[in-house]
Fold:
Amino acid sequence: MSTLPAPATPGASTAARAMSAPASAASAPERVRHVVTQGLKAAVLTGGSAAAGVVLGSHAQLSGKLPSSRRLNAARRSQGDSRKAADVTARPPGFEVERAALSGAPGVVVRGDVDIDTAPRLTETLDAAIHETRGAFVLDLSEVSFLDSSGVHLLLRTRAVLGREDRALVVICPPGPTRRIFEVAGITDLFALFESRDGAAASLQPPG
Structure:
């Protein structure tokens, strides 16, 4: 009389697969982040702002490290809900951009949200300021309250435009949500980042 095979224990096959899974699988997101970051840096440093945008978009879809516009806008709405309980005077000002030199270097100061609605206006101001000046350029984001993927693409484009003329882009961005976007995207080393205008000004002074 033949013996029937014993019924499989529920979950046994799943557990076996989990135990046999290669240990390197856990590091897959980090490998994706490394490969995409390297591609992003290469695209920007060679002036390929369009290619950088494609790489950055792929990074967002593959790893989820850089929030998409939808996620960022959802976070923005969440932040807006929490602000309702605060006094009206505590709310960040509307979007503003103006030219402001620092230690003799040309630049602009940005205030408010940098998103798909405000990026075109910022792009226009940056293009004009860059075209009319020379040397290092200062971009002050210390009063930016929100930065989405449109803003990140704009920063990469600005870096590429200045790089074609061997001009440095000095970015003022103190610790906070906006600075965190640079870190999550893995692009902090593409910019000369400073936490304050004083720190940036000191870097612009010729060695004495």
